[in-house]
UniProtKB/TrEMBL annotation:
HAMAP family: BioA. InterPro entries: Aminotrans_3 (IPR005814), Aminotrans_3_PPA_site (IPR049704), BioA (IPR005815), PyrdxlP-dep_Trfase (IPR015424), PyrdxlP-dep_Trfase_major (IPR015421), PyrdxlP-dep_Trfase_small (IPR015422). Pathway: Cofactor biosynthesis; biotin biosynthesis; 7,8-diaminononanoate from 8-amino-7-oxononanoate (SAM route): step 1/1. Substrate binds at W49, Y142, K276, G309, R393. It comes from Halocynthiibacter styelae. Pyridoxal 5'-phosphate binds at G109, S110, D247, P310, T311. Its cofactor is pyridoxal 5'-phosphate. GO terms for cellular component: cytoplasm. Catalyzes the transfer of the alpha-amino group from S-adenosyl-L-methionine (SAM) to 7-keto-8-aminopelargonic acid (KAPA) to form 7,8-diaminopelargonic acid (DAPA). It is the only aminotransferase known to utilize SAM as an amino donor. PANTHER family: ADENOSYLMETHIONINE-8-AMINO-7-OXONONANOATE AMINOTRANSFERASE. The modification N6-(pyridoxal phosphate)lysine is found at K276. NCBIfam families: bioA (TIGR00508), PRK05964.1 (NF004624). This is Adenosylmethionine-8-amino-7-oxononanoate aminotransferase.
Length: 426
């Protein structure tokens, strides 16, 4: 039952306030379970929008936040610094591609994309390429809800099409046509590289950067594509003086089975965005990393300063939480867990392929997707999920899960059974 005050006054994401959908009031959360105010327990198959990779109330992260709160909750990052920020920087350098040496802390994933886009334009300006102010990307992508980030989301199937006339016009190429697991076709007309080259050759003087979600398109369609596309994209970006931005907000920190999806490729982006699981899902925080070359070109140009500075940049509490989360990932147990979850999802979900209405089933790491041949309703799913004891939030044609890495096998089986039930009834 939705809370009356909540329904009257609190505006939830992607919600019509005149017809607010059902909400469940969470009283507490621990491990992989949410406990509602009426005592009902639900397994969280969503990791709170893909972020709570270690589960809720993880003791080491909780302790790190409490200890830091006793010392300093926040201090401005302009002209000041602190140990949590420095320590986190060292830990990030240890797990990201070695060419990425400069770290800009920010507030959220969307903001990290804004920072990356702004960084690319300022880089091109400092390099004397003043006309390079636009961006290119692939269709069916999603990069966030803030203003510039909306402009590089899919203009037709994305959530932001109604803002089309108010947004900067960007350059779009078809999504990579060869799926992950399929054989790479070297023919540029078949693998998507031909049309990509045509776009960049024609419009490169206007394009500052190409932004893409590596290997996995998230909220744009849960689509997995061949990593060779990214290798080819890197070559073309170099040829046309276009920076390459990898948006790893959804894929970073082990979700695909590797620490970053970038590791499936042979290349390194010029700029990498991260967020979501950075703090283990405890506090909103993100980072944008780039190379010494990009940073130094900006620094040697005019005005030299990078023109961005969030109030809560480098928040000590968030930095402490992120350090604790990375320490948990450092022991490598997450790799065994993600591999175990991937095997479990494959075993349980592939059985759903033959259900009426199921168009596709796909799995990568701790990501399981049942794509339907019709749209499914999150509002209709919510009460069913409560009865099933599994929290799922479908969108578009997708019933999917991204469970915490610590999800045990019996809970994973229950998640998959719930996904199958939703596929049958929605």
């Amino acid at each position: 039952m939705s809370d009356v005050f909540d329904a009257r006054h609190l505006w939830h994401p992607y919600t019509n306030v005149t017809q607010p959908g059902p909400t469940h009031k969470v009283a507490s959360a621990s491990g992989v379970r949410l406990t509602l105010d009426d005592g009902t327990e639900m397994i969280d198959a969503m990791s709170s929008w893909w972020s709570t990779i270690h589960g809720y109330c993880q003791p080491d992260i909780t302790k790190a936040i409490k200890d830091q709160a006793d010392k300093m909750g926040h201090v401005m990052f302009g002209g000041l610094t602190h140990d949590p920020a420095i320590e986190l920087g060292k830990k990030l350098l240890a797990v990201t591609p070695p060419d990425l040496q400069r770290i800009f802390y920010c507030d959220s994933g969307s903001v990290s994309v804004e920072v990356a886009l702004k960084m690319a334009v300022q880089y091109q300006h400092a390099a004397g390429r003043l006309g390079k102010t636009g961006f290119a990307t692939v269709r069916s992508g999603y990069h966030g809800d803030t203003w510039k980030a909306m402009s590089v989301c899919d203009p037709v199937t994305g959530m932001h099409h109604l803002f089309a006339k108010a947004l900067s016009a960007q350059y779009f190429t078809p999504k990579p046509p060869i799926r992950l697991g399929e054989a790479w076709n070297p023919d540029p007309e078949e693998n998507g590289v031909g049309v990509l080259r045509d776009l960049l050759a024609e419009s490169h003087e206007d394009i500052a950067a190409f932004i893409i979600e590596p290997l996995v398109q998230g909220a744009g369609g849960m689509y997995f594509y061949h990593p060779q596309y990214l290798n080819e994209l890197r070559t073309l970006c170099d040829e046309f003086n276009i920076l390459l931005i990898f948006d790893e907000i959804a894929t970073g920190f082990g979700r695909t089975g590797k620490m970053f999806a970038t590791e499936f490729t042979d290349v390194t982006p010029d700029i990498l965005c991260m967020g979501k699981a950075l703090t283990g899902g405890t506090l909103s925080f993100a980072a944008t990393m780039t190379t010494d070359h990009v940073a130094e070109v900006i620094g040697n140009g005019s005005p030299g300063l990078f023109m961005h500075g969030p109030t809560f940049m480098g928040n000590p509490l968030a930095c402490a939480a992120a350090c604790a989360s990375l320490d948990l990932l450092a022991d490598g147990v997450w790799q065994e867990n993600v591999a175990r979850i991937e095997d479990g999802l494959m075993s349980h979900l592939t059985r759903l392929r033959d259900l009426p209405g199921v168009a596709d089933v796909r799995v990568l790491g701790a990501i399981g997707v049942v794509e339907m041949d019709h749209n499914v309703s999150a509002d209709q799913a919510h009460p069913i999920c409560k009865d099933l004891g599994v929290w799922l939030r479908p969108f578009g044609r997708h019933i999917y899960c991204m469970p915490p890495f610590v999800t045990p096998d019996e809970d994973l089986a229950q998640i998959c059974a719930a996904m199958g039930h939703l596929a049958e009834v929605l």
